[in-house]
Structure prediction request, 187 residues.
Amino acid sequence: MRLFVALDLPEAVRDSIRRLIEELKPLSRAPRWVRPEGMHITLRFLGETGTDKLEAIRIALSAVSSPQPVEMHFRGIGFFPHERRPRVLWIGVEASPNLAQLAAAVERALVSRGFAPETRAFVPHLTLARFESPQGSEPVVARAGELTSTDFGSAREAEFYLFQSILKPSGAEYRRLESFAFVRGTA
Prediction:
């Protein structure tokens, strides 16, 4: 099973993103667009994981806590690594400090259960599209430059999820396997 741990998004944020994609999509055929219903804030990607590890994952994640919910504001768009050679088009996430602390707590909990440490830094973002090459990306890059301060909404989250990623020819589908309330006293 291909697994990851993530925060989900409110429907109002997804609707804002749908409208943006509808605006940008006709500008270029170069990007592969992400479906808004599958967008999330990844806290930790686990990759291919045997079902025999599910119980250890559940135990580890159920121990993660934070004194308050995570506050997130979705604003602006940009590119990884940069607009001159775009590979990923993203929406920025401005978050309360406990988002990074939550990701670090998830990381520590999973490493303590035998998972290899993550080698990449935690950079919260929402992936909108991926580019195989920069060819044909110019219209999207130009329009994105005009949207650097666009507001897509906000969220206040008190639980995260263990997701399964099912790869299909039409794109990845995500299925929630379990939820974990990280602010004690919430459902």
Observations:
- The mean pLDDT is 94.
- The longest strand covers residues 70-80.
- The domain at 2-181 is CATH 3.90.1140.10 (Cyclic Phosphodiesterase; Chain: A,).
